[in-house]
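User: Okay, second chain of the day. Same drill as before: sequence in, structure tokens out.
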Amino acid sequence: MAEKETSGKKTTVARTVKDKWRSKHWYKVRAPGLFQHAELGETVATEPEQLIGRTLEMTLPELSGGQDAGKAHIKMRFRVERVGGDGVAETRFIGHDLTSDYVRRLARRKRSKIDTSLHVTTKDGIEIVLKPVAVGEQRLQTRLRAELRHKMVDILREEAAQRTAPEFVREMIQGELSKVLAHGVRTLYPLKKIEIRRSEVLGAIAEEIPTSPPPTEAPAPEGPSGPAPVAATAGGDAGTDA
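Assistant: Same drill. Structure tokens below.
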């Protein structure tokens, strides 16, 4: 009798687990307008509200469909903000990281590594935490490292203040910001490499909606003595005879 009861319990548990899985739904996850609403993948949940706050990580080549094959060391982070009625989970960009292997390769033996962390504010008021890392070909004196660190901080704050958050993020991810830093500190010392090791966006970046040209009106069909007359509809719109 006890064996039958145990068997019945197992059957009930198995059925419960199966029913829970059946109640879940798949949702598509989409990147924000900053990244052309690229599809990030799919995730599963019982209710849409369970998706809010979930984070996803994807390398830059995965996000761009292989266009940035040489930047697989850049990992992008996104967080789900809302789920639309069409079952699509919308995200916002919350920052990026460089892989630990890539950072280790930068700082080899007999090289000076300069790390720092700072807050910058973009032209449109978005606050971003940046953690740059710079590498010199040889060991540098403590005073020179301090001067380079101070110079990098000044450049990053100035660049952020002159750009909107979308512009600043694009330059950071594509490596243009690193070039600006390298150019700005070369009077002190020509650093071998400068990278933004990590970033954290503390506010929501405004969506960029592409501006489409206004629709062109189709020309009215011409009659024997010129264009056919156009009749005004009750709503004020212009229509043509079929």
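The domain at 99-205 is CATH 3.30.479.30 (Tetrahydropterin Synthase; Chain A).

User: Thanks, on to the next one.
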